Every structure is written in C-alpha cells, then in structure tokens.
Amino acid sequence: MPEHLLFSYGTLQAPQVQKARFGRELAGHRDALPGFRLETVTITDASVIADSGSDQHPMAVPSGASEDVIEGVVFTFTPDDLAAADAYEVDYLRIQVALRSGAKAWVYVDTATAEDFRVRRLLDAQANAIALFDEVVERKLIVAGESERAISDRIRDLADEMFGTTRHWHKRIIRSGPNTLLPYNDNPPDRVLQDDDIAFADFGPIFADFEADLGRTHVLGDDPVKHRLAADLPTVFDAGRRFFAEHPDITGAQLHAEIQRLARAAGWELGGTGFAGHLIGEFPHEIMDAERIQSYIAPGNTTPMRGKDRAGRICHWILEIHLVEPEGRFGGFYEQLLDLG
Q1: What is the pLDDT averaged over residues 129-155?
Q2: Which end of the chain is least crowded, N or C, by CB within 10 Å?
Q3: Which positions fall inside the Peptidase M24 domain (predicted)?
Q4: Residue 136 sits in the same domain as residue 105
C-alpha cells in the first residue's frame, strides 16, 4: 500500500483529533515549511469544531519570502489516512511542497492558493515538456536507421540533461510506421525507423511532482498524405478545445463524440483504446483509474468534465488526438492540456 507524507502545522497534531479521525495517536517527526506564513481562519463545520475544540484554526499562506518558515510535524499516512485527513480539513485543500529537510509532503492550504499552485505547476510541467520535444527536433533524434527503443532512451537522457527529470508517470512511447496504428496499451516489437516513416512520441515526464503528458508527430520523408495527417492533428485538437470551451456542461462522452466527428470530417479515423484523454495532476495519480470511467474522455462518461475530484480540487484534463489513415497504413498522435494554457 503506498504511503504519503503529510506536513501538519495545526490541529492534526492534537491527540484528540488523531484519535477521533484515525483511531490512534500518530508518530511523526519535526520539519518546517519555508516560504509560508500562518493566518487564522474561522471553521464552520460542527464535527471539526467538536474534534478540535475550537473554530479558530491556522492556515498556511504562501509569502514567497525565504525568511518565513512554519514549524510543524511530518506524518506518514496510508491512502485511508489521507482520505480521513481530507474529510477533516474541509475548509482546506492539499498541495505537495518541499520541506526544509528536502522531503516532499502534502500540506493543507486555502482553496484559492491550492488551485493557483496546481495550475502554475501543470503549465510549467507542460512548458518543460514542449521545450524537451523542441530540443528533440533540434537535435534530430528521430531519424531513420535508429530503433524506437533507442530513440526513446535518448529522449529520456535528454530530459535528464535538460531538467534533471528521471521519472515518467507512464511508459515512454516512440511509435513508427505500422506501429503508429496501435493503442497505448499495446507493446509491439521494437522497430527501426525507415526513410519515409511517420513517427510519434508520447512521453509523461514528471516535473516538481506534477505530470506533463505531451504527444507529437514527426514525418521523416516527403509523403504528402503523412504530412497532411501531421498537420491535421493540432487542427483537430484546437477544434476539440474550442468545442470544450463553448459547452460549459460538456461530458466526457460528448467531447469524445465531437473528436470522432472532427477526425472523420478531416478524412481520418479515430484510433486509440476508446478514449480521447484523461485527468491530469500531481504524481502519483489518485484519480485516474481504468475502473472509473469518470477519469476519461470516453463513451460512457456522462459526468460533466468541469467538476471536482474526491479531494475537492478542480479537475484538469489532457486531450489526446490519435488519428489513423482510413486504409489502416499509419497514424499520428497529438496531446497536451485541454483546459489550461
């Protein structure tokens, strides 16, 4: 069972709160949160007031000043413990931060701070991923005569060189030729790229504990049909993004149907595993789950996409466009943030 570090600067340190919410007293160790200061907020939830004994609770607020430090205690939580803490901290949301010790831990802050923090981190992660792929093109890493696996490894090493990034939240993919028809879950044999190939990359590097998810397509030769497919990918993406923006109550099923319509209108078929995107956020995923259709832009997801996750955070989405040539000879792929940027 995965473990989570949680930094407490307030009432979660109180034994009576721990017994009421976790059924036991917790063991922790001292640490501190730099760049934040404390304010006091008034709590209105009757059960929280009953457990803590007060309606006046501290709130961590980012100050940006290195001299501001909040002292506290780090606890190691199971997922069930974390869910119990979320239920207690009803007027807060949690974000991941770096503590004075260098450890990464969850901490509860106000909702406005949490959302601003998440948006900035997601956009920063995507900007880094775009810069990575731009450098891949600049260095001509996707070339004929190299295997898909070798190119994937070179891009991995480049991410480490540029950003010190060694973790990826999903398997790294380079697909070429007929392999570009295959969905993400397939694991085709390694293939050497040819002079007239179309190829795509699908990478999910983790930057500052936030996931990027970016897909791009590259054409090696002069085939006009392959070049048209590569050009249509961002066009279909942009049209799907506009459709999402114009329909405030859109569901995952409705957006998937529109992406399929756009693909066919452009002369292509929609490939993939039956979905056209997914939730995105902090690593590791706490929401995206193959058993929860609400996590996907897919048929069957009748939940409005503009909602909140189980912890009360605003949902943010990745849109994936996998187009395949109608005769089934090749495909292409494009993905990035749908609702941000």
Answers
A1: 95
A2: N
A3: 125-305
A4: no
Of 61, 59, 52, 69, nearest in space to 13 by CA: 52
Instruction: Look at residue 280 in the predicted model and tell me its pLDDT.
Output: 84
Shared-domain flag, residues 130 and 98 = no
Residues in the chain: 341
The CATH number of the domain where 123 resides is what?
3.90.230.10
- pLDDT for 166 beyond 70: no
CA dist., res. 220 & res. 302, Å (int): 40
Angstrom distance (rounded) from CA 180 to CA 192: 13
Tell me: do 105 and 118 sit in the same domain: no
Contacts of 39 (CB under 8 A, 6+ apart): 58, 59, 61
3-state SS record for 113-152: HHHHHHHHHHHHHHHHHHHHHHHHHHCCCCCCCCEHHHHH
Q: How confident is the model at residue 294 (pLDDT cuts 50, 70, 90)?
A: confident
Residue 60's domain spans which residues? 4-109
CATH, residue 17: 3.10.490.10
